[in-house]
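Field log, afternoon session.

UNIT: design team B
ACTIVITY: writing a sequence onto a fixed backbone
BACKBONE:
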């Protein structure tokens, strides 16, 4: 890998509503996933996959983290977590457990993995995730037909095995377990759907169950946020079932870290974290860049401008690697 390619294995640190200051790790080739969620902020899945493989050399990933950590220290940017949050499903990475162990031994910073939980029925995946300090598993529904509609899973996945695997993981995991439920208007936000999800989460017993809504441009234009009344209903239903829940519906802020390569930073961040216009403004001001950098990336077809919910967003244009075509 070239130095720039290695640099793009990480991004940030960026503001996270759950993790404070998070240094993101992109350990999956764009955009390979076991799901093709209708609300995905990164666009449509380029390749569906459930078989685990090695995507990058562990040494390259560790080197990318090292450079980001050192630079963050130089500019006095705190890092609360090293977070595996790629433009795909992180547990598809066969080296995930090795990478977590290496990073924890070198940097002594807590590690987090944000997963869609699709492979949690596999023992090797559970063993890898157990090595992290903080894990988030996604459960948008516990109704199989709705699961197919909202998450559009790989056809070989077993929904009931997934739910059982999550319980096995919770029993063995010693760290902080979070769950996330993304609400989409008219899809999984009915009282019946929410009651079922809340009942499952009560039995699972996560340390925190987050209720979120699509705040960034979704893969499908038909996706809409639920009404405020529906969001509060979901919160009350979860609470009523004894679930320790929290709403994750606010904007996370504009405080993104930078290096000396503004354009490369923008590509790294927007590949997994579309940025609002005001966030790009703040980033350019802090990094000493200009909108000419953004315009150049748009003209080169590397990022795109999207309007969603009365805000302008900038997102990486993800293209399928040649060897996947």
């Amino acid at each position: 890998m070239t130095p720039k390619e290695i640099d793009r294995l990480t991004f940030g640190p960026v503001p996270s509503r759950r993790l404070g200051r998070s240094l993101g790790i992109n350990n999956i080739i764009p955009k390979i996933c076991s799901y093709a969620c209708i609300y995905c902020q990164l666009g449509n899945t380029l390749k569906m996959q459930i078989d685990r493989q090695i995507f990058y050399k562990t040494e390259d990933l560790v080197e990318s983290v090292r450079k980001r950590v050192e630079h963050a220290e130089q500019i006095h940017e705190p890092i609360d977590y090293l977070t595996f949050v790629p433009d795909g499903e992180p547990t598809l990475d066969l080296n995930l457990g090795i990478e977590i162990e290496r990073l924890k031994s070198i940097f002594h910073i807590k590690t987090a993995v944000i997963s869609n939980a699709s492979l949690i029925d596999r023992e090797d995946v559970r063993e890898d995730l157990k090595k992290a300090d903080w894990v988030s598993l996604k459960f948008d529904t516990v109704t199989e037909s709705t699961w197919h509609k909202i998450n559009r899973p790989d056809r070989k996945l077993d929904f009931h095995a997934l739910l059982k695997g999550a319980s096995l993981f919770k029993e063995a995991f010693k760290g902080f377990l979070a769950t996330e439920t993304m609400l989409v208007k008219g899809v999984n936000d009915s009282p019946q759907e929410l009651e079922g999800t809340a009942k499952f989460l009560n039995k699972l017993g996560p340390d925190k169950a987050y209720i979120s809504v699509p705040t960034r441009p979704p893969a499908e234009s038909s996706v809409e946020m639920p009404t405020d009344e529906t969001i509060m209903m979901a919160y009350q239903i979860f609470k009523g079932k004894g679930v320790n829940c929290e709403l994750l519906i606010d904007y996370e802020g504009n405080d993104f870290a930078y290096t000396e390569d503004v354009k490369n930073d923008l590509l790294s961040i927007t590949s997994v974290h579309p940025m609002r216009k005001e966030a790009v403004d703040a980033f350019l001001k802090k990094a000493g860049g200009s909108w000419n950098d953004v315009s150049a990336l748009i003209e080169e077809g590397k990022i795109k401008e999207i309007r969603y919910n009365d805000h302008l967003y900038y997102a990486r244009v993800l293209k399928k690697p040649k060897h996947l075509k």
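LOG NOTE: The two ends are 20 Å apart (CA to CA).
NEXT ACTIVITY: expression trials, pending approval
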